[in-house]
Amino acid sequence: MPTNLCVVGATGKFGRSIISLTDSSIKVTGAVSSDTNPLVGKPITDVGGKSPSVLITRASEIERAAANSDVVLFVSTAISDLNNIPKIIQLDKRIVVGTTGFDTTQYERLRSMLKEVPSVLTSNFAVGANILFRIAKLLSGFSDIYDYSIIEHHHKMKSDAPSGTAKTIHEILNSQAAFSRVVTDRTMKPKRDHGEIEIFSLRGGGTPGIHQLILAGEYERIVVEHLAFSRAASAVGALIACKWIASKMSPGIYSMQDVLNLNDPKSAT
Ligand SMILES: NC(=O)c1ccc[n+]([C@@H]2O[C@H](COP(=O)([O-])OP(=O)(O)OC[C@H]3O[C@@H](n4cnc5c(N)ncnc54)[C@H](OP(=O)(O)O)[C@@H]3O)[C@@H](O)[C@H]2O)c1
Known about the structure:
Blueprint: E1 3-8, H1 13-20, E2 26-33, E3 56-58, H2 62-66, E4 71-74, H3 78-90, E5 94-97, H4 104-114, E6 118-121, H5 127-139, E7 147-154, H6 164-174, E8 181-183, E9 196-203, E10 210-216, E11 221-227, H7 232-246, E12 252-254, H8 256-259
Parallel strand pairs: 1-2, 1-4, 2-3, 4-5, 5-6, 6-12, 7-9, 8-9
Antiparallel strand pairs: 7-10, 10-11
């Protein structure tokens, strides 16, 4: 049986990529855009979908779009997700959220909603990026020896900085050591103090997403890099997450580390 999926943000760059990569194991049964999108009422074939009978629905009718789905995937905007997710929880659907750009308060609200149903929340669906998260955990305990930096590169239209993935790498490092002082610009503070972490954002062209974790020591340096060739890297991971959560019965928030079985059995995260 295929997983029935509703994509919220179907007309966006990421939503289109996800919809165009669906195969016989996952069927798009709903697609949602903002209320004002000119594609409202048009078939999902206009955004790369396979079934001309499924039409793009405005956000104010999200319940109708989600009615036939097992899983609702959010890849839209932080504000709209906070409005729309409670309506989907009312329908008792499984939820996957890949939207980024939530501030701390919004993120807490999001998490308190998502724990009501089986859900996946991640800043990066790409399998390789999640292997990078696993490596970041392994590398997190050496702050006495190395200075840590995160550099992220993205296309020039990206609406948030630093990227959600860079923030996740920072959180993972912080769970082991004290990198509480984030430096995003060296202009006013050229010299480095202990306990700092540099997080630098580069924006240019159509770069789909590069993340580098750099550990610089006195005599050696480690660089771990994840480079997505295209949005398809994340889109494939999003579809893996949607299929995985479809069979989960227990409410709670799962990560891509859970989906990909990348958790350290010895740790409780
Ligand atoms: N987790 C990951 O691996 C990953 C990977 C890539 C992107 N992302 C994140 O996914 C999100 C979307 O990225 P994108 O590049 O596709 O952005 P985008 O091209 O700007 O698309 C945003 C989508 O959200 C829709 N939207 C806007 N307001 C809405 C509302 N009120 N209700 C429902 N939908 C609404 C837009 O509809 P209109 O076109 O009608 O405005 C559009 O479909 C961003 O937060 C991005 O950072 C995450």
